[in-house]
């Protein structure tokens, strides 16, 4: 248990138990004294960059010359007796090889604007030991090459400028970039040849990947055992323009939380994904996603990649999304998707998924070119049977000024949509939102030829741009309520199968008769 938690508990008891106050005060004093002694006794060594100032060099235990600076940094880390801190001065450290901190050590810079680690010749920051802290610097990687031979396999290009293999890592106040010769800036990788246990308990705070030719933050796993990555936390992190000006591959995203790994216990708070080649926040299709929660996250202007020809909604070779969520137990709370090219929120095969108080604005605002069936603000598809009930809960979510459909729900069962608001969608083919899926009419990649079933939909829809604001088609056992406010020619259109469909709670009102 952390000392801060213990102290907070004791403070609470102090207020409630007057008789225990003298004893508890003594305990608090002892804990604080122990903390200060530990901090004072933790060894530290200083490494100065070749271009740092005279004052920094005078205080340094090691002074770099601007060539192979990883040697001095590694020497300082190795010299620490069982933990401690290596302090990096201001300036640029040119690293032509890798840095490998020992367990329990801290690498501390002067802030990402002042301390820069520039990696070349396949060098990287390699975290293969537990309980390492990185804080306060900028990393940059470029020029990675495949150095494989007939007898050795080089995987440097499939790693990250910062590659984390081991549990208990803390990364605070680190900004990074890379060209398109390496797979990621920040990479969490389970590699059983480096670290066999489950990779877990990793924390990113105030970290940024900016203007990269590759993925910003990527989770991945090699091998077949312990491939779940668990209990990863992101707070106030950003992935900006990843893959926009050069691409490691055609699918570069800002945050990719599940590539070949399963993911469990993910928390992302107050994070930003903006201007990325493909999705802002992304999960791949096959991995298991359990207990993943994103809170107050914003995904803006993602999907810079052109649409492929003959694209079908739901094809796995194009994302273009603010939030790309193919299956699993993922919850989004107070999240915003704004101006993404194809989808604000793309959801497939939800298994107890939650969207609460989420908002979409202007999906389709940026043009990604190519052939497209049109942007969709909230796209919910089911291509496999799902047993969870409810499979999806959307509550207090809203769409504003979508450049296509505000909502599209196809092949979906056991959905609970409450207090959904859609305002002034442009629509596609004269329709503002589609609830259901007409057979063979829409370009949708779905193995289940069905509409919407066993669900509840409560909405408030307004706008006059499309001829039909809400299109209900092929529904079974669905209850509708709410209001449709429009002077459009046909505000609500119901077609196809409608067994067990209850529309008695859905009112259609003209704009001047909203009372």
From TrEMBL:
Gene3D superfamilies in UniProt: Single-stranded right-handed beta-helix, Pectin lyase-like
InterPro entries, per the entry: Pectin_lyas_fold (IPR012334), Pectin_lyase_fold/virulence (IPR011050), RHGA/B-epi-like_pectate_lyase (IPR024535)
Keyword Hydrolase carried by entry: yes
Sequence ranges assigned to domain Rhamnogalacturonase A/B/Epimerase-like pectate lyase in this UniProt record: 68-158
UniProt KW keywords: Hydrolase
GO molecular function: hydrolase activity
UniProt KW Signal keyword: no
Top-level taxonomic group: Archaea
Signal sequence coordinates: none
Name of this protein: Glycosyl hydrolase family 28-related protein
Organism: Methanoculleus palmolei
């Amino acid at each position: 248990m952390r000392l801060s938690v213990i102290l907070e508990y004791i403070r609470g008891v102090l207020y409630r138990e007057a008789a225990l106050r003298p004893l508890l005060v003594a305990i608090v004093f002892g804990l604080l004294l122990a903390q200060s002694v530990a901090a004072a006794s933790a060894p530290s060594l200083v490494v100065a960059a070749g271009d740092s100032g005279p004052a920094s060099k005078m205080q340094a235990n090691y002074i770099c010359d601007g060539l192979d600076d990883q040697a001095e940094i590694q020497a300082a880390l190795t010299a620490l007796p069982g933990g401690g801190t290596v302090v990096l001065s201001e300036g640029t450290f040119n690293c032509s090889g890798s840095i490998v901190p020992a367990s329990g050590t801290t690498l501390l810079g002067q802030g990402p604007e002042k301390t820069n680690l520039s990696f070349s010749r396949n060098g990287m920051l390699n975290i293969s030991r537990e309980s390492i802290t990185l804080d306060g610097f900028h990393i940059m990687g470029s020029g990675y090459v495949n150095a494989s031979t007939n007898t050795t396999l080089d995987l440097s290009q499939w790693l990250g400028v910062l590659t984390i293999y081991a549990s208990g890592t803390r990364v605070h106040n680190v900004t990074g970039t890379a060209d398109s010769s390496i797979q990621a800036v920040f990479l969490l990788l389970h590699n059983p040849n480096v670290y066999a246990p489950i990779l877990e308990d990793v924390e990113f705070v105030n970290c940024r990947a900016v203007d990269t030719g590759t993925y910003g933050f990527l989770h991945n796993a090699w091998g077949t055992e312990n491939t779940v990555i668990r209990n990863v936390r992101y707070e106030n992190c950003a992935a900006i323009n990843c893959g926009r000006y050069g691409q490691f591959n055609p699918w570069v995203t800002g945050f990719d939380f599940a590539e070949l790994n399963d993911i469990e216990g993910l928390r992302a708070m107050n994070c930003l994904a903006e201007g990325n080649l493909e999705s802002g926040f992304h999960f791949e299709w096959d991995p298991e996603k359990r207990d993943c929660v994103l809170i107050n996250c914003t995904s803006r202007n993602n999907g810079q990649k052109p649409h492929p020809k003959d694209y079908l909604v739901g094809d796995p070779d194009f994302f273009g999304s603010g939030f790309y969520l193919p299956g699993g137990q993922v919850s989004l709370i107070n999240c915003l998707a704004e101006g993404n090219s194809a989808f604000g929120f793309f959801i497939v095969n939800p298994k107890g998924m939650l969207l609460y108080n989420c908002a979409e604005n202007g999906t389709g605002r940026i043009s990604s070119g190519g052939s497209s069936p049109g942007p969709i603000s909230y796209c919910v598809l089911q291509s496999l049977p799902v047993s969870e009930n409810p499979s999806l809960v959307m509550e207090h979510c809203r769409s504003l000024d979508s450049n296509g459909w505000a909502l599209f729900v196809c092949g979906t069962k056991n959905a609970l949509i409450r207090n959904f608001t859609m305002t002034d969608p442009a629509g596609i083919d004269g329709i503002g939102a589609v609830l259901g899926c007409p057979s063979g009419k829409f370009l949708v990649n779905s193995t289940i030829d069905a509409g919407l079933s066993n669900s509840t939909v409560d909405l408030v829809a307004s706008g006059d741009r499309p001829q039909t604001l809400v299109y209900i088609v092929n529904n079974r056992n669905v209850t509708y309520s709410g209001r449709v406010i429009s002077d459009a020619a046909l505000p609500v259109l119901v077609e196809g199968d409608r067994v067990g469909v209850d529309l008695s709670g859905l009112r259609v009102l003209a704009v001047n008769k909203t009372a």
